[in-house]
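User: What would this chain look like folded?
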Amino acid sequence: MQETAYVSVGDIKPTTQLNELLEKVAEHKGCGTSGGSGKASCGSSDGPEDMDPEVWEKVKNHPCYSEEAHHHYARMHVAVAPACNIQCNYCNRKYDCANESRPGVVSEKLTPEQASKKVLAVASTIPQMTVLGIAGPGDPLANPEKTFKTFELIAKTAPDIKLCLSTNGLTLPDHVDTIAGFNVDHVTITVNMVDPEIGQHIYPWIYYKKKRYTGIDAARILTERQMQGLEMLTERKILCKINSVMIPGINDKHLVEVNRAVKSRGAFLHNIMPLISAPEHGTVFGLNGQRGPTAQELKALQDSCEGEMNMMRHCRQCRADAVGLLGEDRSAEFTTEKIDAMEVVYDAETRKAYQETVEQERQATVAAKNAEKEQLAKLADAEGISMLIAVATKGHGKVNEHFGHATEFQIYEATAKGAKFVGHRRVDLYCQGGYGEEDSLQTVIRAINDCHAVFVAKIGGCPKDDLKKAGIDPVDKYANAFIEQSAISYFMEYVGKVQSGEIVHQARGDADIRQGAFTAAAA
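Assistant: Here's the prediction, encoded as structure tokens.
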């Protein structure tokens, strides 16, 4: 018996709360703040009035190019590009684990025809899937025939899906016209250096024009081609995101220079990611003991670059066959064997209707935040006070995950200016088989120990007590509420406690965090 992949519009009913909030929505034109060049981009969740309508249409439902959209819209990658023309010291494409989320990892390599069928199956099952990306497991432009054949098939059968690709940029200048011809509006280039002296420590070799180059020569060719390709894309108004891997002691300080270089060439967004270097992956950096950055080091670098251009902070460093919302992976539901058993019903009108409902939910999130910010503006003497808040969420911009079921926490920074997403922290699952794991709880506490509070839909008594002892306030009173609205509300309560003298504000991470930590849940 075949399984039918189909979604009924009749099952979608906006809530009363949603409708009430929608009445308060002002015109919403964008998804970010203006970068250093004055160009609007969308690393944050704000909506700039000066965003070009054409740009807004490209990013409003792209989960990688809009932090706001990533709560509501899904993406998928298809693994049609196995070959690569460079070697990175942080990459080993031979490694595979079903539970491993890391670029270059896939469980199945597909032909363009298999990929096209998979896209239709996923899009029919997950109607909020709006983006198809080709990101490997090698380099899409080292496999141009397979990459562009896949785009050709998808453009014919599912024209409502956005097309994007990720590349190391070595052969990018050779394919810009073809990319533009397929209406690929989003291209990600991985740029880890603009100085060949640094690049030689990241790239052992490149293969260019049928010749292998090593050392400084390889790095020099690569950076020249990357910058040329970036300039060619931005001239054609194709949005470019730059991915950079932060490697402590090698390129961490240099990435500020990379940020300036790509901004000056018109890059739209910069995504600085932490190095993943576990020894079991078999990479050069993993085997030689090169460490990755701490969450605090990563945030500090992102903060230092944000004045130049907007930063992407919601990246999950996805597998090359990832499916679903960022932070989840449903690829196991769509193996070739399972897709062959499906009767795929691709209905563009159903997808459009579903996405219209998703857009209502998304605008309600913005309305809730803006309504709370109006109250925030009335605060006095809040300048200089900031806090980080960890949030357990399953998506949709809400506090809707049980503490014990969280495998990551989204991190928000609350200040007198509002609340903004600044990163995420992966953690070990605390609740396993119905019981809490004490060792896992300690790893969770270490992961979020710079946060003043953790927002959860529900939490048990034991972890709640341990979090309080660590100076982290466990808060469950915002269950199923919008995250940013809740963060602003909590911040205002906290400031009120500071102003009344009930508590003394200290940045988390300081020794002996306030005695008798403020507990909003009990307020």
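The chain has two domains: 26-338, 360-522. If you want, I can go into more detail on any region.
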